[in-house]
Each structure stands twice: as C-alpha cells, then as structure tokens.
TrEMBL record:
Species per Swiss-Prot/TrEMBL record: Salimicrobium flavidum
Cofactor: pyridoxal 5'-phosphate
Role this protein plays: Pyridoxal 5'-phosphate (PLP)-binding protein, which is involved in PLP homeostasis.
InterPro entries the UniProt entry points to: Ala_racemase_N (IPR001608), PLP-binding_barrel (IPR029066), PyrdxlP_homeostasis (IPR011078)
NCBIfam families assigned to the protein according to its UniProt record, in alphabetical order: YggS family pyridoxal phosphate-dependent enzyme
Identification of the protein by name: Pyridoxal phosphate homeostasis protein
Statement: the UniProt record of this protein carries the keyword Ion transport: no
PANTHER family assigned to the protein according to its UniProt record, in alphabetical order: PROLINE SYNTHETASE CO-TRANSCRIBED BACTERIAL HOMOLOG PROTEIN, PYRIDOXAL PHOSPHATE HOMEOSTASIS PROTEIN
Span of domain Alanine racemase N-terminal: 6-223
Length: 231
C-alpha cells in the first residue's frame, strides 16, 4: 500500500481508538519513522499530511533533513552519543531519548536555543533497552534544572515485543503514572505534558493509555524487509 493509504487507515484507527476512550484525536501527534526508507518515501508521508518525521541515527537524520528541510518537524528518536550532539543538535526539534546526565550536559553546552526533550524511561527493565530506571526519574529530572537548554516536554518508552497485550498495557500505564507525578511537581524546566509511546505493533494500546506521540515506521512508510512497501 502507498503511504497515503496507510496514513488514512492509521488516521481512522486513531479516531476510533480515541473515541473509545473519550480522547480528542487532535491531541495525538503521529511521527513517521523513516529510518528504514528512502527520502522519497519520507516525502510521501509529508504529502499525506504527516509532517513529523523521526530518525534514530545521525547519518539518516542529517541526510533526510538536508533534502527535506523545514517542511517537516524533526524528531530524533534513537540513542544519541554525546560526541555526535554537536553535529545534530541544531537540526533537532524534539529529542525523544534523553537518558543520561552527560548527554544533558553536552546538549546544554552545544545548543543555541532550548531543546524540547522527552526523558526516555526503561519501564520494562530489559537490559537491552536504553532509558532511566523508573525509580531514578524524579531525581534525574530535578537535576536537569541545572541545564537551562533542556526543556522536559514529556516521557518516552519502548515496550518490548510480547504477545501479552496486558503486559504492554502495564508498561504504558506505568509511564503515564510517572508522567502525572512529574507534571504535578510543577518544575518550570519540566512541564512534562506528553507521552511518547506506541509503535506499529502496539500503538492502539498506547493511545488507550494516553499516548500523545506515537512513532510509526513499518505500518506507515514500511521497513527494510518490505522494501519500503508497508505490510
Ligand atoms: C524504529 C523505531 C520505531 C518504529 O518502529 P515500527 O515498529 O516500525 O513502527 C519507533 N520508535 C523507535 C525508538 C524506533 O527506533
């Protein structure tokens, strides 16, 4: 299917899911994750009205950014090495993977303006996942007040691929509860309004649990095994 058809299908799913839990679909931002696909394919997403694009590696991010420019809002969704910050930070509108103090420090040093950041949390506790441990999130965010270029707009997590929907739901619920706690703390540098959670295989569950930013690759623009064609 082409990106436009996928986008329409996804839009319907978002509307139906939001209706079922009495949410406003306008509160949901769809990020087209273009890491598997060509710049042309990413342009198709923009033509279909999806103007938020996400990349997880420096090279792909800069390449697409160079070719597409300010027609899109640019999300960096992958783990970011501190030494690469200087190359990308001016091009990032939203960072989804703030997960350590050294990264905050480097961003603060290199960025010219305030950067919207999601703090990545490792709710599932899997060794392979990046992110702050849930128990350390409060202290981490409090500490970030020392880095005035960091604006914590929300929390982000990745749920493991599991069959059990209730497990996935439990992970999203925990992130939401943590978001509510941080938001209630009322830190000026951490309004923490948003929840970046949900990918192609679990985004309806994420929406039911309050996701405001869903990150869709495979179901929207396709992936490498489908050669850019979506399943
Ligand atoms: C690749 C990726 C996605 C999109 O994955 P799909 O399953 O293809 O939708 C979302 N978030 C992050 C952080 C990713 O790396």
């Amino acid at each position: 299917m082409n990106v436009k058809e996928n986008a329409e299908k996804i839009k319907n799913t978002i509307e139906n899911t939001c209706a079922s839990v009495e949410r406003d679909p306008e509160d949901v931002t769809v990020i087209a994750v273009t890491k598997y696909v060509s710049t042309e394919r990413a342009e198709e997403a923009i033509d279909a009205g999806i103007v938020n694009l996400g990349e997880n590696r420096k090279e792909g991010f800069l390449e697409k950014q160079r070719e597409i420019g300010n027609k899109a809002t640019w999300h960096f969704i992958g783990s970011l090495q501190s030494r690469k910050v200087k190359d990308v930070i001016e091009h990032i509108d939203v960072l989804h993977s703030l997960d350590r103090k050294s990264l905050a420090k480097e961003i603060n040093k290199r960025a010219e303006t305030s950067i919207s950041c999601f703090v990545q949390v490792n709710i599932s506790g899997e060794e392979s996942k990046h992110g702050i441990n849930p128990g350390d999130v409060h202290a981490f965010i409090k500490m970030l007040k020392d880095y005035p270029k960091i604006n914590v707009v929300g929390l982000m997590t990745m749920a493991p691929h599991v069959e059990d929907e209730e497990k996935t739901r439990g992970i999203f619920r925990k992130l939401r509860a943590l978001r509510d706690e941080i938001k209630n703390e009322g830190w000026p540098h951490a309004p923490c309004e948003f929840l970046s959670m949900g990918m192609s295989n679990d985004y309806t569950i994420a929406l039911e649990e309050g996701a405001t930013h869903i990150r869709l690759g495979t179901s929207l623009v396709g992936n490498e095994t489908t050669g850019g064609e979506s399943s």
